[in-house]
Amino acid sequence: MRLYEIPAHLPFLPTLAEGVLQWVGLDDPLALSRATILLPTRRSALALREAFLRTAGHQTLLLPRMRALTGLSTEEADELALPTLLDLPPAVDASRRQAVLTEMVMRLPSRYGGPNSPEQAWGLATALAELMDEVALEGVDDGRLSELVPEEFATHWQVTLTFLRGVLDAWEAWLREEELMDIGPRRVAALRAQAELWKKHPPEHPVIAAGIGAGGTIPAAAALLRVVARMKNGAVVLHGPGEVKSAELWEAIGRSPTHPLSGQVRLLSAMDATPADLRPWPGNGAGQPALERRAELISCSLRPADGIEAWLNRRPDHWQPALKGLSYLEAPDVQAEAVAIALLLREALEHPGARAALITPDRDLGRRVAAELMRHGVLADDSAGQPLGETPTGAFLRLIAQAVAEGFAPVPLLALLKHPLAAGGMVRSDWMEAVRLLERRALRGPRPAPGLPGLRARVAEAFRREKDAALLSQVMRLIEALETALDGFAELPPSPALPPADLLEAHLDAAERLATTRERPGGLRLYAGEEGEPLAVHLANLPPALRALPPMSAAAWPALFDSLLAGPVAPSVRMGRGREGQQHPRIAILGLLEARLQDFDLAVLGSLEEGVWPHATDPGPWMSRPMRADFGLPEPEARIGRVAADFLLLAASAPRVVLSRARKRAGAPTVPSRWLTRLETFLAGQRGPDGKGLALPRSPAAGWAARLDMPAVVRPCPRPAPSPPVENRPREISVTEVADLMADPYGFYARHVLRLIPFEPLDAEVGASDYGQVVHQALAGWTRRLAAAPGGWPGLATAREWFGDAAAHALEDAAARPGLLAFWRPRLRRIGDFVVALEEAAQAGHRIRRRHAEVPGQLDIAEGQVRLKVRADRIDELADGSLALIDYKTGTPPTTKEIMDGRAPQMALEAAIAEAGGFRDLDPHAVSALAHWRLTGGSTPGEVQPVKADPAALAADALDNTVELVRGFLLGRRRFISRPHPRRRPQRTDHDHLARLAEWGAAEES
């Protein structure tokens, strides 16, 4: 048996190339080209080509046939191209299989654990397809399913097992009816056919299976490797740690599924081989002593419990050289980890010819590092690619479904309209101009009524003024283009049920129309990017598959469509995102599969955290752990053994290795990878005479990342205090803004000098301020109607009816959600009862002669240089000729003390304006009463809170203070300081971020 081993501390592919060249020689230029080399991945095959060229001194070579057998593990399987396979039925298309299994899964009632929606059924079907592939690839007879005893399991698993038997029987019947073969069995048949062919007719030229099965492999592949190892011109080259192991330890490793060599032990056992059969590969060199010692260190630290005696031997001097080139990076969070790793990769480029890579199963970390590398002028994309749903076109398709499903709510609607592919048949610049106009004028604030009709109504309301006719026409062109594009896909109602294939067709048709511009049709724009061809092929394969699904609620389509663009059925694509320049040839970001057998000068192993690397073990939704064991499937922990092998081989082979993790992920603390914990614990036990143990050297990259954006010298900026020219300062101020000017001059400056008026938020929640406006509007309408009634009072019943009408109009104008209307309506009714009772009592005393609502007023102050403006909620002309001012509050009114000390000058200034005759249609009169009506509509619906002070004195003091204030700020050069009075808090805080309040405010508080 020709079994060879390349130790973990040697670069696998260069060592393999050296040995192959020694085997075939270079005397015959065709000898190498006749050889066949089987490798685990296509990337490793490409890298081996470069290794041959480097090993041969870049002389011209006819390279061997290098085939990537990407099917030699349970997760990644592929079939070989053999003539015998023509006799087998064709394999079922993966998308079609997924859809048929989804339809079968949907038959399981939800009360027994079945899916509640089509996308849940799709996910369960994905897990079922993986289980079926695993059963086939592991060589388990599915007939054993009938041998499982349901009574031994929980009730849920009894139901699941019974249903699973029925699904598998129905699936086999469907395959026979369609004359197709399942994917897993056909892959196994391909491997068996290849093994049988080579067993009967061994090739005359070398066949080398290299680097396959480092973490274990499936039985059919093991049988193929057994045949190759026994061929006269065959050889199997394994990648292992190279240390000598006892038979007992080897047996213990085989019993430990999470050990990195457990899969290799099982592979050798399936090949009827032992560790003694492994011979050194002819190309093996001496290697670096430090790397050899490091491989020994990592292998020793990961031994199972039966080999733990090695931990009891304290040899710090023996292990110290193993730490050369090995370091540990612990970052505060994932983003800090990405910044630090990007700096490490960039630093590696300072060494001529050095190659560096980030190797991680965490795709999020890979994307973050790629983004950070761009900061340093280095382009490197994640080799694992990007899911179709996250590509620009995939996102556009998903946004269409989301916007329609949510009734064209502002946030998903704008996300769709602003997508670079959206044009609706218009010139893109005209489209975007209309979108921005729609956003500013119509979509800010509360959500419009659902659907395109609701959007039309909101646009008509927002542009109802005559001077907005041109703008209305511009936005209406956009709305009409959107309606035309989405014709047939403008709504996704819960019923009636529709075929998914029809929904997909309508969805894609709408997408093409929406992506159309005047210059190019939508189809060319949708599928023009790097993801265009794989996305188009994937979408073209879906309609035949979706016809297997039963009709479904259209409302569930967006979630199902998201599932269609994710998961194993949808391919991932490499995305350069239109960047200029080429990928850096010496920097790589790789997943675990892509990194196998690769060698680098610097290898950063990222996201070494439990649940990420290694990932969490999950037996899946269809079988529990005991069921899998009884059925004959490998334990889920075997997957950890495979990724543990990746960790061992990668950490042992590179001259420089950085083991990296983040202390927090998504705000939650993480747990270090078990391999990190074992390695640190093992080193800590290697104590010297001084009693101190060894430790992994800390990488300086975390410190580099922390200092990257820190200035050399921190120069704190003072509190902002702008002083604009006098001519740029406003000459008008409302009574409500006087308090804001006193409490926060900078906020007043930002609003009235810089004219920075914040937009209302998108899809704004209707809250307390909106409720206050409804109450004010209802009271104003009711008061005006009372004022027009003969004698000022129509009677109790009519007054209540009129208030109900006014409240209904106010609620209709508010256009609030039904839930809020149901909450506000009874409150307004209670407020109505309260104010009607007040008015009835006032009418009985004949105290009110006339009522005025929403009265505008103004007063020129400071020698007429500044105009003070106001709109009073209500003014009553009393029988004695004086005036009573009333202010409505749905919140907490200011106290008399706050009015007297000037913190709340609104009512006092209204009194000053009234006494001066500044209100429209009102002559100058003395003010005899000031009052706040606190109107909550709660258990205490209303309360009259009079201001207990002389109105004339309050008015005079407030006016004098206001004149002094405007002379300093509006007529003088007084600086607009932010928050000068700690006890005075402004009502508005929209500009606190511009004033950097959090920066200096915290310092003042401390």
Describe this structure in words.
The protein is an alpha/beta fold and 1006 residues long. The protein is 46% helix and 12% strand. The chain contains 37 helices and 22 strands. It has a 6-stranded parallel beta sheet, with helices on both faces. Strand 15 and strand 16 form a beta hairpin. Helix 7 runs parallel beside helix 8.
Keywords:
1006 residues; alpha/beta; six-stranded parallel sheet; six-stranded mixed sheet; 46% helix
Distance between the termini: 77 Å
Q: Main sheet: which strands, in order across?
A: 3-2-4-5-1-6
Decide which structural class fits the backbone: alpha/beta
Classify the helix fraction into a percent range. 40-55%
Number of helices: 37
* Largest sheet geometry: 6 strands, parallel
Average predicted local confidence, pLDDT: 89
Annotation, overall tally of beta strands: 22
Regions with pLDDT < 50 over 5+ consecutive residues? 70-79
Q: What is the percentage of strand-forming residues?
A: 5-15%
Give the C-alpha Rg: 38 Å
Kindly report the oligomeric state of this protein.
single chain
Shape: elongated
List the helices and strands and how they pair.
Elements: E1 3-7, H1 12-24, H2 31-34, E2 36-39, H3 42-55, E3 65-68, H4 94-105, H5 118-137, H6 155-178, H7 183-200, E4 207-210, H8 219-230, E5 234-240, H9 247-255, H10 262-270, E6 278-280, H11 289-301, H12 316-319, E7 326-333, H13 334-348, E8 356-359, H14 363-375, E9 386-387, H15 392-405, H16 410-417, H17 428-443, H18 451-462, H19 469-485, E10 497-498, H20 500-515, H21 522-526, H22 532-546, E11 552-553, H23 557-564, E12 572-573, E13 587-590, H24 592-595, E14 602-605, H25 625-631, H26 638-653, E15 656-665, E16 668-669, H27 674-684, H28 701-708, E17 732-734, H29 735-743, H30 745-752, H31 768-788, H32 796-814, H33 818-844, E18 848-861, E19 866-878, E20 883-889, H34 896-900, H35 906-915, E21 927-935, E22 942-946, H36 951-969, H37 997-1005
Parallel strand pairs: 1-5, 1-6, 2-3, 2-4, 4-5, 7-15, 8-13, 8-14, 14-15, 17-19, 20-21
Antiparallel strand pairs: 9-12, 10-11, 15-16, 18-19, 19-20, 21-22
Helix pairs in contact: 1-3, 4-5, 4-22, 5-7, 5-23, 7-8, 9-10, 11-26, 13-14, 13-28, 15-16, 15-20, 15-23, 17-18, 17-19, 18-19, 19-20, 20-22, 29-30, 29-35, 31-32, 32-33, 35-36
